[in-house]
Amino acid sequence: MEKDEFFLKRIRELANLSYQRDIVTFSDFLNLNEQNMVNSLKSQLPGIVMESSGGYDNAERQMVAFHPDALAFTWEYPIDCLKIEPKAIKFSEDLTHRDYLGALLNLGVDRNVLGDILVQKNAAWFFSSNKMTDFFLKNMCRVRHTNILISKIENPDEFPRPELEAVSGTCASVRLDALIALAFKSSRSSMVPFIEGGHVFVNGKLITSNGYEPKDGDIISVRGKGRFIFDGVSHQTKKGRCSVRILRYI
């Protein structure tokens, strides 16, 4: 509880600083739970606009920007995208998200300066606070036993696109527990503890009701499991069940 109170105090300080000095202030990268706490403060911060970004569309870890509602100048998030690739593909290992994250944290940095890490074959991209870019460029040289090259991506068109896997199935109704069970190939009853335990977020908002009905396009995140996009109901079966489609982040 003390940790949460300290976090919310820091968020209020950033918002007040923005209002008093007529500037844009930024949080660190926030996880889903922290984003949910920030959103709960909106009504307590009149005159301040809160926006968020993780450097690319639908990022999970996001940085929140605070600015006065009548701000008269343009601004950008202090976020850079860096690419990691092996020096020699022939001698590279099959590296995972955990491997890349571990290599970054082993440099002695805090998790809050890092956004999402997107892993594809023989490469990974990660988003970071731009104040850390030079540090990573100079000090990141190996992931596990693989020697790597690291570079800053200047052109947004070269930013990575998350890979999605289409999953289809049927459920009695479009409920949160049913969709999560379908996405992660589990039973509805096994998903209930995740929902009631505060591990499920819809578009960054904490949801604790098993019967919550997501809307088309909602992004559903389950801590410890992954996330997916609810792509809607295609039709009803002869038995009255809903045929649904989801897009799961790989």
Automatic annotation (TrEMBL):
It holds the Pfam family YlmH_RBD. Residues 174-234 form the RNA-binding S4 domain. Keywords: RNA-binding. One of its GO terms (molecular function) is RNA binding. This is RNA-binding protein. InterPro entries: Nucleotide-bd_a/b_plait_sf, RqcP2_RBD, S4_RNA-bd, S4_RNA-bd_sf.
